[in-house]
Amino acid sequence: MRVLLLAALATTLLCGCAPSLVWRLPSPDHRTRVEIRERGGEQCVRVASRLDGCYPGVGSRELAFSPDSRHLAYPVERAGRWSVVRDGRPGREWDGVAGLVFSPESGRLAYAALDGAAWRVVLDETPGEPFDSLVAGSLAFDATGRRLVYAAARAGRVHAVIDGGTGPGYDAIGSPRFSPDGARCAYVARRAGKEVLVADDIEGAPGDATPEFVFSSDAARLACIVRNDAGWFVRENGSNAGPYHSARSLAYRPADDSLCYVARCAEGEAVFVGRERGMWCDSVQAPVFGRTTNRFGYIARKSGRSLVVLDGTVVKTEPRASDLVISPDGSRFAYIADRGGEVSVVDDRAERVFDLLIDGSLVFLRDGGHWACLAGDRARQRLFIVVEGIPGHRAFDWTEITRFTRQAALDRGAVVRGAGILRAWIAAEAELVLDGHGSRGSRGS
Q1: φ and ψ at 9, to 5 degrees?
Q2: How many CB atoms lie within 10 A of CB 267?
Q3: How far apart, in whole angstroms, are the C-alpha atoms of residue 62 and residue 58?
Q4: What is the rounded CA–CA span in Å between residue 147 and residue 121?
């Protein structure tokens, strides 16, 4: 099979590369690069052409850019103490720091700091209350940057801390996050072997597992997947759908907030959108959506063939297909087709044949008029980024993506985040091609 699956790619990335004194990473938009070099026993940080500073130690794996690429923060060590440098200015010293996170609108910075034997969350250089430990990866802002949530442990109990207020104690807490409008907060908590979804400090009915939950865009609705002795259920504002043999891929369709998910029954797997059920298939890939329209699609497997389904209608049949994407306005679609002898990107206009394609890399760019993906040449053992309608290609830097990916925490959301990281990387590089920025690597065909 000539399509390289994302799992195989992730394995390669996470293996990393040989130790080096040089560390390089790009900003999210890939227009600025930060470089760390050893010099005279110190580590020096250079941001583009600007020298940020030199320190005895730099926590390179904790380096964080703001989402808009305008701000940079990283830990530095001096005389056994650590501080966070933001935009060239060091902050207060601590015994250790970790987990640097910028707010989505990029103005605020939070991180975990070790203060003697206690851990605190520091927000804009103001420390919060002490805890025995903090749950890695739990720091999360709302979309506006005004609110912050994290999970912390004290005296053997784990608490959700929302806007500085400490909630009740549980055995464990995972996945705290805000609704899209920031008005509500929810998280999954475990107590006595059962999991409950806690929203606005109110516990839902307990179950054996609650692997997914999601808010509607207006925060009026909250849905989750729950497993108990009777099977798997999709629960929304107290009402249940099910039982199913399994359920997954829970989402609200962006344009109209229809609840969508994939469920398996004795008949097979199907996509549910609101009260409508799609066809029963052997297996179904997670649905994808346009951002501003009701258009949605998915790829299903049935009777040994792959079906490309848009808005409930089969539009293409392939020996094998994957990686369906829809443009932001819903006007276009594309996917990867593997026909044994060749592999192609097929879209609503044409198709383009490649020697190798990386599954999980296909993405529509912001203009919606071009797709981009990661392709390869087996004979030359090279990977490169191609953009629809643009001659040539852009070289793909394995070293940078390896370093970047190794910073991602490995928890139950790692696979989803891994796909998001790769697509965001390809999109940023492809935008450079469209804008004419940079000439790193070959542009030849």
Answers
A1: -65, -45
A2: 10
A3: 9
A4: 13
pLDDT in tens, 122-147: 999 999 999 999 999 999 999 999 99
Rg of the chain over CA atoms, in angstroms? 23
The model carries a pTM of 0.86
Q: How far apart are CA 260 and CA 253, in angstroms?
A: 7
Q: 93: buried, middle or exposed (CB in 10 Å: 19+, 13-18, 0-12)?
A: middle
Contacts of 156 (CB under 8 A, 6+ apart): none
For 358-404, how does the pLDDT look when each residue is reduced to its tens digit (9 = 90+)?
A: 999 999 998 889 999 999 988 888 899 999 999 988 888 766 665 55
Q: Which residues contact 117 (CB under 8 A, 6 or more apart)?
A: none
Token duo for residue 67 = 């989402």
Instruction: For 70, list phi and psi in degrees, rounded to 5.
Output: -90, -15
The 8-class DSSP code of residue 94 comes to B
Domain residues of the chain, as ranges? 1-21+286-445, 32-116
CA distance 71 to 233: 43
